[in-house]
Design a protein that fits this description.
It contains seven helices and 16 strands. By secondary structure, the protein is α/β, with parallel strands linked by helices.
Length: 243
Amino acid sequence: MNILATSAGYRPDGRGGARIGPMIEHAIALSEAGERPSVCLLETATGDHPVAYLRWYEAMGRDRPDVRPSHLALFPMPNVDDVRAHLLAQDVIWVGGGSVANLLAVWRTHGLPEILADAWRAGVVLAGVSAGSLCWHVGGTTDSFGPELRPVTSGLALLPFSNTPHYDSEPGRRPLYQKLVGDGVLPAGWATDDGVGLHFRGTELVETVADRPRAKAWRVALGEDGAVVETAVEPRLLPDPRG
């Protein structure tokens, strides 16, 4: 029962495209699938933009030809006959970024919360970046409703914590997240700088990892005096097989 919740995914390939980054590699490794792992991409948070899936197949075909990539699109209708069977057949499910509020609404329409929970309990690695990180938690901070960050509290809650990505790159994230935890709108939780991932086994955080130096994870919780305490966690730097 593994979840990898991250602020990282692809890396630039130097030609204006994308390559499979160390964080996606780590998600695949966590599956311990051996030869020909099955990895499915969900880009619900971008409305299943076709360019996102094209990038996925191009990057996987070039960087990980041993992987059996697939995708689940829900717009305008599911692209597979049996959504449940398809997702439960995967070794890894990777969820892309975008609007977490829209993602959660569409997922609920199609019954994905229950399917994904069953996949998790069956040993499928659930992973993703940004919205694909926040979705597994109780809630966090989001720009789903406009440029001004707001709370979202309708996450799948497989992990009983709050979560905020992009902690170091979007200035509004840190103060809002701490306020929401301090006010009790969100439970205590974890934030990630860009490049950092949180590896949970069950609901226990077992490791923090990063695809770049100097990036950190952060524990945000109430201290004994009721004030918010932010604690930095140094992640393990992942190797990059493509330099």
